[in-house]
Write a structure and sequence with these properties.
This protein is mostly helical. It has a domain of 52 residues. It is built from 3 helices and no strands.
């Protein structure tokens, strides 16, 4: 939508400059406002493409949630038993 508005505004500016016979007192101000809006829209359009590759995919995958698996009580008991056996065997 912003791109369409940008190009329509640019076309209207070019048409007005090409067809106006002379500039009145108010017209330089209107042209300045037109250029100001073009500058603002160009920043919005440039920022709207941030992170998009030419293939249309995002540059980085979405971050995965960091989940830490809960420790299993059986695994802890086996590890403690193995540590106790290897400590008493030595």
């Amino acid at each position: 939508m912003q791109s369409a508005l940008f190009f329509l505004l640019l076309a209207a500016l070019a048409y007005h400059v090409a067809t106006a016979p002379d500039f009145g007192l108010r017209e330089p101000g209107l042209l300045a406002w037109c250029c100001f809006h073009l500058a603002l829209l160009s920043g919005i359009i440039r920022n709207s493409w941030f992170g998009v590759r030419q293939t249309g995919r995002a540059a980085r995958p979405a971050p995965q949630s960091a989940t830490v698996p809960a420790e299993q009580p059986e695994v802890a008991r086996v590890a403690i038993a193995q540590a106790a056996e290897s400590g008493s065997a030595g």
